[in-house]
Design brief:
The structure is a single chain. The protein has helices at 3-15, 21-28, 33-48, 60-64; strands spanning 56-57, 71-73, 79-85, 93-98, 103-104, 111-115. By secondary structure, it is of the alpha+beta class. The chain has a six-stranded antiparallel β-sheet. Strand 4 (93-98) and strand 5 (103-104) form a beta hairpin. The longest helix is centred in the middle third of the chain and has 16 residues, at 33-48.
């Protein structure tokens, strides 16, 4: 599902007070703009304003692929920033620093990416 469809559906379900809002969406979706134009216009406005859904990290592999200086919010609501440091001889270690300046070797998943250096370029 595209970001536009996802937002339009969310707006529709939020606005629709039916106990079967999800079913109503599925019923009206094939008719598209005829019945849902306002919701798609709202979705377009939100996307044009720069909204993008935050990235969710669910596996250790995804976590390992993040670049240094990334900041993630873990499952417990703790912010963690990735630092790559050379502590001893050998390859640098990937360390996560929490908001309390504690150092961890990992992050409690799932986690939401709050900041990514490559996204800010």
């Amino acid at each position: 599902m595209s970001a536009r469809d996802e937002l339009a559906k969310l707006l529709f379900i939020t606005d629709n007070h039916s106990p079967d809002a999800e079913q109503d969406w599925l019923h009206l979706k094939p008719y598209g703009p005829k019945y849902l134009r306002g919701y798609y216009d709202g979705a377009d406005a939100v996307l044009a304003a720069g909204y993008s859904k935050p990235r969710t990290i669910t596996t250790e592999e995804e976590l390992d692929a993040l670049a240094p200086d990334c900041i993630v919010l873990d499952r417990y609501g703790v912010a963690n920033q990735l630092s790559v440091e050379r502590i001893t001889e050998g390859p640098p270690e990937r360390l996560w620093y929490t908001t309390g300046a504690d150092c961890n070797s990992s992050v409690a998943l799932p986690a939401t990416v709050l900041y990514s250096p490559e996204a800010s370029k």
